[in-house]
């Protein structure tokens, strides 16, 4: 038996509880992993609160990511004792996820955990941090180098934002950070940002083209915020867009694209091909300062995971929340 969070649905009403499950209940898969840690990402909070239809199958163990040790394997790629990490692939949405003592998954979904990281550090990074790295890689692929000008990061006090600020600053970029929490300014500056900008400045409808301020941006917000960010990108700059914290819409014009050659690069972590995942985790081992990672991380016991989700969606959780399991 192992502890697990379980989401169920009856008569259109979703319920969620901390419960105990038997190994026999685990879903199909060729690798069984003893989970060491999981995390609370924005998507986990949407799933657990039921605020968005993230969960596609009931009952569901949420948790879109985990780190752990292979317990048994029918896959030629993995053997008992291997240290692994999993992000996405529908885990926690259509296949039982990481907020549990064990998971059974497809071996092809797993990535070897770089030796630089402990299980806890892997989940301090989690899907939010790995997505931040994918965003940095997307900007690099568009030729956004440190000499081109400042980079903007939205949602800077959140998970993706905190890691993006730390990574970009370490890579030599001048980082300007947008936050709705001015009280977190010292925290964001300690991660490496040099300018703190008020979210309110980005939340109202702006002009199709504004002053060319930033060479690039990592955006977790979407909505009006992303539209305004696009209008401020310098000629031939790029925005890596990964989130919807401000909304799904994009009330923008084509002006930044056709007049300034701006690129809007979409970033998805869930179905991201394996070579990019391995590159992202390898780069995180090299480019993320472990001290800064620790400074943005706090622990949430499995027993507190459910109530923490409301706070996370309300934008009240700073940085990264690790859920230790083992
Ligand atoms: P967090 O909750 O940790 O951070 C989100 C941050 O966004 C908040 O901390 C807040 O930062 C900011 N924010 C909240 N509301 C608004 C708003 N109305 N307008 C502008 N900014 C706002 O979440 P994560 O970092 O885990 O995820 C961030 C986003 O990225 C989510 O939308 C998530 O779904 C998405 N995501 C997408 C992935 C993908 O594969 N595409 C993978 C991982 C995440 P502050 O207080 O500093 O303003």
TrEMBL record:
SMART domains: PKS_ER
InterPro entries: Acrylyl-CoA_reductase_AcuI, ADH-like_C, ADH-like_N, ER, GroES-like_sf, NAD(P)-bd_dom_sf, Zn-ADH-like_protein
Enoyl reductase (ER) domain sequence ranges: 11-323
Matches recorded under SUPFAM superfamilies: GroES-like, NAD(P)-binding Rossmann-fold domains
GO MF terms, alphabetically ordered: acryloyl-CoA reductase (NADPH) activity
UniProt name for this protein: Acrylyl-CoA reductase (NADPH)
